[in-house]
Amino acid sequence: METINYTYGLLWYASWPVAIYISYKFILLNIEHLEENLESKEQKEDKE
Amino acid sequence: MEEHLVDWSRAQFALTALYHWLFVPLTLGLSFIIAIMETIYVKTGNTVWKEISKFWMTLFAINFAIGLATGIIMEFEFGTNWSNYAWIVGDIFGAPLAIEGIMAFFMESTFFAIMFFGWDKVSKKMHLLSTWLVAIGSNLSALWILVANGWMQNPVGMVFNPDTARFEMNRFFDVLFNPNAYSKFLHTVGSGYVMGALFVVGISAWYLLKNKEGVKAKKSMVVGATFGLITSIFLIFTGDEAAHQVALNQPSKLAAMEGLYDGHRRAGIVAIGQLNPDKKIGDTQEEFLWSLEIPQALSILGFHDANAFVPGINELVYGDTDEHHIESASDKIAKGKIAIESLKAYKKAKKEADPLAAEKSLAQFRAYEKYFGYGYLENPEDIIPPVALTFYSFHIMVGLGTWFFALFFFLLYFAMVGKIEKQRMLLRLAVLSIPLGYLAGELGWVVAEVGRQPWAIFEMLPVGMATSQISTTAVQTTFWLFAVIFTGLLIAEIRIMLKQIQIGMGEH
């Protein structure tokens, strides 16, 4: 009978919320950057 | 067992599972995307994000309701069409399935109601919490289904009770932390995240092509492309682990996935190729008509060792006891038949109240127990799953996954530099990639389930022994009935979604 390594399994399961959290942080970062871009584009169009 | 009954029972379950899997990945991925969008709304107070969240939530709700209907039918099919299976492994399979039911019906459904109907009835924070709990609940319900499926691929944490002829769980945490369970769970939910991201970028691309919903579509595009890109990387790691576990526990599946007939050290992966349709197990014909191979990659992927030996179909069928200690399938079948006869003798001895004979038969059964399932197979070649279907499904899935990664990368790049609306071809490709995401997900399941053949439970229970003793006509009738109903549900979902997409993001 195969011996199951619980620690190894636990670490793999833990990668699930980590992946979601990393995605969330990158989305926040990219959205912040996008909104700055959209704002500066808007200001540029207003000036023109 | 009537041959057609097994085929039709398999066809019906495959039909239900394939339709169910059209709805589930979007639920898994879109639920987290919406939760992140709503979090941005709550953090910034910007009502544009509320409108964006509500729009994607409407599409999510349509998909969720129809997905639930197909899922319920599938669970009933274990009892109606696979009652032998349910009897033999119900003790193990039932526990995760019951937890899944609680997760799906109580957690998801309760918070889904608050998420969908509670916008102006509960506080912002309570609403956000509900949205996150729907996402976590739907993914946790997938966890338990995949723990059950992982056990079917690699049965652990159980003993066979010869008195009841049932497998019984004796180590719950072995079942939960089974490497095939966590690798399958992470890879499957990861594919759902990519599907959710493809859905969001595809529809956002359609708006941009139509010059509609400019700012909201761009914001959705950035959320979708970022989520898709990160989860695509996650999918590569989990796919590697899933392939590693297949190599360790299901060598016949790996050989079929790679069309590998003759095993060898430093085995390569066929990046692209065409199988020789005339190739038969044991003959000397070439495996491929043409192929492009990445040297040593299969040994590395499967065993994390470039020098590792990867057994091929011929070694698995005919054995290679001298060099690699691989037993032939015919030996395993012979030992399996001894196990079956020993079990019969044990039961007879128990019935006749002969404890000595019972003890002797049981000892013999225990010696051959691990071959028990093989005793029900007729031919050594039966241990190999359909090679062409497994091979092409696997390679097309991997190819599509690579394309999605590139798509997310370029969409995100052009969205971030403010030139996304000018990339008309890329936007069209994003729209066209929505059905490709569904295709990749379905192919993944084909690899997992067709690659497990001929077993319902790997090396324990062949599919032929798992079905219910019902009439083939009954299964055929319900097959066509389900096919019509599921197609109707799918058409209804697509039409309702298209209508909502045409209405736009501001009217929800």
Structure explained in plain terms:
The complex is a heterodimer of chains A (about 50) and B (about 500). The longest helix of chain A is centred in the middle third of the chain and has 42 residues, at about 5-45. Chain A is about 90% helix and about 0% strand. Chain A has one helix spanning about 5-45. Chain A has one domain. The mean pLDDT of chain A is about 90. Chain B is mainly alpha-helical and about 500 residues long. A two-stranded antiparallel ribbon of chain B has the order 1-2. In chain B, strands 3-6 form a two-stranded antiparallel ribbon. In chain B, strands 4-5 form a two-stranded antiparallel ribbon. In chain B, helix 1 (about 5-45) packs antiparallel against helix 2 (about 45-80) and helix 1 (about 5-45) packs across helix 14. The chains are: A mainly alpha (about 50), B mainly alpha (about 500). The interface between A and B is medium-sized, with 27 and 41 residues.
Helix % of chain B is: over 70%
Give unreliable regions of chain B as ranges.
none
> How many domain units of chain B?
3
Q: What's the count of strands of chain B? A: 8
The number of helical segments of chain B is 15
Strand content of chain B: 5-15%
Mean pLDDT of chain A: 90
Detail the topology: elements first, then pairings.
The complex is a heterodimer of chains A (48) and B (508).
Chain A: H1 6-47
Chain B: H1 3-44, H2 47-80, H3 83-117, H4 124-153, E1 158-161, E2 166-169, H5 172-176, H6 179-209, H7 214-249, H8 251-258, E3 264-265, E4 269-275, E5 288-294, H9 297-303, E6 309-310, H10 313-318, H11 329-351, H12 355-368, H13 387-416, H14 424-450, E7 455-457, E8 461-462, H15 472-503
Antiparallel strand pairs in B: 1-2, 3-6, 4-5, 7-8
Task: Give the tags.
heterodimer; A: mainly alpha; B: mainly alpha; two-stranded antiparallel ribbon; 71% helix; globular
